[in-house]
Specification:
Layout (H helix, E strand, L loop, with lengths): L1 H4 L7 H31 L7 H7 L2 H27 L3 H28 L1 H7 L7 H11 L3 H16 L3 H25 L3 H24 L17 H35 L2 H37 L3 H28 L1 H8 L3 H14 L5 H14 L3 H22 L7 H38 L1
Helix pairs in contact: 2-9, 2-10, 2-12, 3-7, 3-12, 4-5, 4-8, 4-11, 4-12, 5-8, 6-7, 7-10, 8-9, 8-10, 9-10, 11-12, 11-17, 12-13, 12-15, 12-16, 13-16, 13-18, 14-15, 15-18, 16-17, 16-18, 17-18
Amino acid sequence: MAAAANDFSQGKVWRRIMSQAIPLTLAEIVHLLYNVVDRVYIGHLSSADSMALTGVGLIFPIVSLIGAFTSLFGTGGTPLFSIARGARKEEKASRIQSMVFILLLYTSLALTALCYIFKRPVLYLFGASDASYPYADAYLTIYLLGTPFTMLATGLNGFINAQGFPRVGMLTTMLGAALNLALDPLFIFVFNMGVRGAAIATVISQAVSCLWVLRFLSGKKALIPLRREHMRVERRTLKDILSLGVVGFIMKGTNSLVQIVCNATLQSYGGDLYVGVMTVVNSVREILFLPVSGISSGAQPVISFNYGAQKYSRVRQGIKFMTIACTVYTTVSWIAVLMFPRFFVGIFSSDAALLATGPAALNLYFFGFFFMAFQSSGQSAFQALGDARHAITFSLFRKVVIVVPLTLLLPRLGFGVDGVFMAEPVSNLLGGLACYITMLLTVYRRMGRMQEQAC
């Protein structure tokens, strides 16, 4: 009965997507509280002005890199898992899920060790100064301890959603984030531990989320539980996971590259203040992009399942709905930023200098934000249908071919720090349209032909 209730080939497609997307979005909002709440509290520390927030912002590339490896295995495995489940190949789905667990565990331990070894030179490479480094170092030293917890919780939570339990997936992050919300002020202010206290609260919260995920996937409620006998690496399955997961890896890995280039350029042209401004801008973007991510994440298992079930008209319906919903939302978000930029900046800092410079940078960065809907919808469609080549190409195109060169070039052409913030909207326009139009001309059109043949 549970399997029938979670059959994505039945019922209205948009309802199936939203039944996944709403709890996933709520889960991602709560998940974001892990780091956003830290930034809110740290940004209002009276003793450090904006320097503590700047220091914490310097670890964004490392967080993105950890997220990239999580996506390499998590987002590589879940579409294959959904396709196998849609084709009623539960044994294959179980092997994929259990292998992802092993890959996440071993990789998280290796990344933790490497980050500790190269911590100091890396932070200076990312734009740290002698003033901001102590804050970045204090936070990162403790934050890295939670790497295995966050990779397992985030990477495996997608399998809970792919089995049709998005509410359970939502609870994964709600438990940890609620704990983080409660522990942050306790460690930061009551125990007077500052940025170290924020990191401790985050690690504890990540551990709770991890235990919740493992408990569910090892229990009787899971349709396809983790199985010890399947916890081994099979070369062919690994190749399939990596070929598809490299999409998420490159997307997040290039995020890390962009953040490094932005911080280093801003440090050269504007100093610590503008690195702090970018921390705020990135934080606002993370918040406003969450529903887009939730809709895309909710659509992917539905699209993948119907593709595996050979329901090609439903695949096309899913892509249409995902695009419309994301476009409407990002348009409304852009209007909100244009009208209330100071409000968004004020969430993360009460520093007078940040409040004076942040709103203009925010408006530049978010100009034409709705074009991000086309990038997200196009790449999600490619990924859900197993077309890793196109998904990789357009992720690299937007960030490596457009954003990074513009971030380095525009400041030198006389735009100064404004040039760094202008690179993002240009990439959204060019990269987003190129990605979506290509998706329409390739996989979307192919689904139409396959549906006609099936009839």
